[in-house]
């Protein structure tokens, strides 16, 4: 792999095709490298790298970008408060929204509508949540969190659903290089317990991400004997 003493940008430029074709929407490969370092674009934007003769270059570039993200997480020490597991990323709300979206599977017989406020407890979580329904599809609800375990407004009208299964999170992520199909540890920025979650990335558009197969059981990495 490239010499780590070089700047990340210089290492990336070394493995780019150097055609300055503009297909990535940047004027030249140098600008594209700068954008990669800042996580403002994805490696897939370079269509030339899809050619077989650049296969090894693409492998090296992916290794570089992955090492960058590992260093980012170490530097910023993204850890859960409860168990101190390290996260790969923090999941932030979509633009203009106040929390990450949660997709719930509920088991209640309540008649629910978009705009309703609900009270529920995610399976595996001891904290009661209050949320507003944004979308409804059969037994699936897409919601925003609006309150902690104690309601914000005593006059708030809500429907109690009991335990619900959180099957997905939707939000945006920055400062990390992730891919569809990857299993990740993440911290929802609105989590009242600041607990690391895990799941599988099933959709990724720009920096909008959907993570499914949500689990609160995050296994600690094995201890390597010295």
UniProtKB/TrEMBL annotation:
Ranges for domain 4Fe-4S: 3-63
Highest taxon of source: Bacteria
Keywords from the UniProt entry: 4Fe-4S, Iron, Iron-sulfur, Metal-binding
InterPro entries according to UniProt: 4Fe-4S_dom (IPR007202), ACDS_complex_subunit (IPR051069)
Keyword Iron: yes
Gene3D superfamilies: Electron transport complex subunit B, putative Fe-S cluster
Protein name: 4Fe-4S domain-containing protein
The species this protein was found in: Draconibacterium orientale
Lineage: Bacteria, Pseudomonadati, Bacteroidota, Bacteroidia, Marinilabiliales
């Amino acid at each position: 792999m490239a010499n780590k003493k070089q700047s990340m940008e210089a290492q990336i430029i070394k493995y780019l095709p150097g055609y300055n074709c503009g297909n990535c929407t940047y004027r030249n490969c140098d600008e594209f490298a700068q954008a990669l370092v800042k996580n403002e674009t994805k490696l897939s934007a370079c269509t030339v790298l899809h050619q077989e003769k650049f296969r090894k270059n693409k492998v090296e570039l992916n290794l570089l970008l992955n090492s960058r993200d590992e260093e980012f997480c170490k530097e910023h020490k993204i850890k859960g408060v409860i168990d101190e597991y390290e996260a790969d990323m923090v999941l932030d709300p979509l633009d203009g929204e106040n929390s990450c979206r949660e997709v719930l599977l509920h088991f209640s017989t309540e008649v629910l509508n978009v705009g309703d406020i609900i009270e529920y407890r995610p399976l595996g979580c001891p904290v009661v949540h209050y949320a507003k329904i944004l979308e409804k599809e059969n037994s699936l609800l897409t919601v925003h969190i609006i309150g902690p375990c104690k309601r914000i407004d005593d006059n708030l009208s809500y429907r109690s659903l009991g335990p619900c299964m959180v099957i997905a999170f939707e939000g945006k992520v920055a400062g990390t290089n992730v891919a569809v199909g990857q299993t990740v540890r993440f911290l929802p920025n609105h989590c009242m317990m600041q607990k690391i979650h895990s799941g599988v990335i099933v959709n990724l558009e720009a920096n909008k991400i959907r993570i499914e197969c949500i689990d609160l059981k995050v296994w600690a990495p094995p201890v390597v004997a010295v």
